[in-house]
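so i finally got all the pieces together for this one. its two components total, 704 residues if u count the protein bits. some of the lines might not be protein, just check the labels. i wanna see the whole assembly predicted at once instead of chain by chain like last time, that was a mess tbh
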Amino acid sequence: MTEGKQKIEVPVMADLFAKGEKPEYLLWVGSAGAFDDRYKKVTRAFVKILTHLNISYAVLGVEESSSGDVARRAGNEMLFQMQAMMNIELLNSYEVKKILTCDPHAFNTFKNEYSEYDGNYEVLHHTQFLQQLIAEGKLKIESDLFKDKTLTYHDPCYLGRANDEYNAPREVLAAIPSKKVEMKRNKSNALCCGAGGGQMFKEAEKGDKEVFIERTEDALETNADIIVTACPYCMVMMTDGLKYKNKEEEIKNYDIAELIEQTLKL
Amino acid sequence: MINSILFILLWAGAIAFFAWNIKKISRNIKLGRDLEIKDNKKKRWGLVLKVAVGQSKMMRLPISGILHVLVYAGFILVNIEMLETMIDGVAGTHRILAPIFGFLYPIAVSSFEFFALFVMIGCIAFLIRRNVLKLDRFWKPEMKWWPRLDANLILIAEVILMTSIFFMNASDYILQTRGVAHYHEVGSFFLSSFFVPMLKNLPSETLILIERTCWWLHIVGIMIFLNYIPYSKHFHVFLSFFNVYYTKLEPVGKLANMSSITTEVKSMLSGEEPPMDENAEEVAFGAQDVKDLTWKHLMDAYTCTECGRCTSVCPANITGKKLSPRKVMMDIRDRLEITGKNLDKNGVDYSDDKTLFDSITAEELWACTTCNACTNACPVNIDQVSSILELRRYIVMEQAAAPGELNAIFSNIENNGAPWQFSQDDRMLWADELYINK
């Protein structure tokens, strides 16, 4: 089964540090990336890409903890700041300068909010990182895998509106030979998947409809074959939406990292 | 002479009453917590030019955007003519600038007539959109009788004011041709000339009556408008410039830090006693009433013009939940107005035992996904999410009344560093048996 394959030993910060090594990037896996069955696949896909391109990186492993984003947005500032300060202490002890993450919420918190507590890092969302690699010619995609497929990209709120990043993910998709179609609500007008601000973890308030169904309908309207996401919350919501609409067989839901993983046959 | 005195007295009264209202609103806004915004002056002025003067965000919805520019630009331009009206009113003259500008005068007045027409077209279209087409965002539950009437009153008033200009100019022209005293010849004006056939058979006395009535209507109308807006959503015609100037310049996703908590958490983590600050006021965590919000939150509320663009893009509202960001703004403003009135009537120590939670329910607040579609849609850069979050903070940290599921994730994060009940030791399991094709 493992023939022609090579095992990836994911580098852990504490081990590298003990050996006196300092990786260029810290990969922040995030709670969803570590525990959510669907999003673990995204973490694995991204790690494969990092390995494939010989990127110098490490993860915090069992030392990682919640970024505090959800606590803060749910109103628990006390808990958020505790998490932030503990994480910053750890990150600074490893002299972390650059952070990569597949989670736009962690991206936003690290980039914009940790600086209040002496956490100053250069933070890149994985779509920005991939876009840079493509622009620098380090990542080349020569695959016809999605040539006949139509892709539609769902903007995560915390990458898009919150941080004005609409282009990087689209430029990565542009590098993948395939057809693209925009949803009627896109970029700064994109509709939220419904999971942010703590909603992911609670029953929705009474209404006519779930937000994720409304957004899934936007995606279905485009007749795309693949809904592309770049956020763990959006992934869960769009997957649920496709199930609700009984479309999970015909329409797939992938993170951008997974598309790259597939085109590179990693 | 009597007319001049009446004119001056009316204006003095109108301006004094307006100033009194402005003082009150500004006092109310200052009831909010301190917040220093003194940075990036250049960038802020740039925003004012682009967003407030240039109406850039209005164009996100092009139809109402263009109509609004017609009304906004038209109204400002029409009122250039007020300069002449003011001199005439004080000095008892008639069209005093006509001899000075000569042949340019009728061209200028004709242009003003076109601007008046633009304002009319805009206002009539707005009335149709509100009352005939019944655009959804103008009929949400928070748009009760007063917000609806308020919007219609101003639109109707503007249509009347603009119509009066046409009748005034048409009568004036006829009176000029008849050589009636006081109405010296200044020429004909383009658009109002279409009203001439309607009026030309009337006796001069009637025409003078029409002309004077329209002139006074225009003047008094402006005074009423000026003094109506502090009681109306139309206050945005002033406050939007200030509100845009004080826009949060950091990325939209950044939430305001609570420095009071930073001090506490730092001492908890270090095990040291927090430094005692004798002057420190006992501040609540989050907001339960207007005084717990910052002055910028309160300015946001007063600036809201109830257009509902926020609510119509809110994922919670779109899917039938109770949350409407516009309602939150309206509730904060209404509560602030009552707080101000109580202060005037009963002094600083009085409390009516009410809070923002009497009008804004937890159900509304917990439906927010913090997606920032509302802040992005707002033409006057209101930050609805920030106010919603301050109220959530109070519910969570002061009342300990977060929904059960959220309390569960809080304790999970505290105990095992993730919102789910997984052990922190399992954080690397995702990396098991990970292979890459060679």
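Strands of chain A lie at 5-7, 25-28, 57-59, 98-101, 122-125, 150-153, 179-180, 226-229, 252-255.
Chain A has two domains: 13-131, 141-263.
anyway lmk what u think
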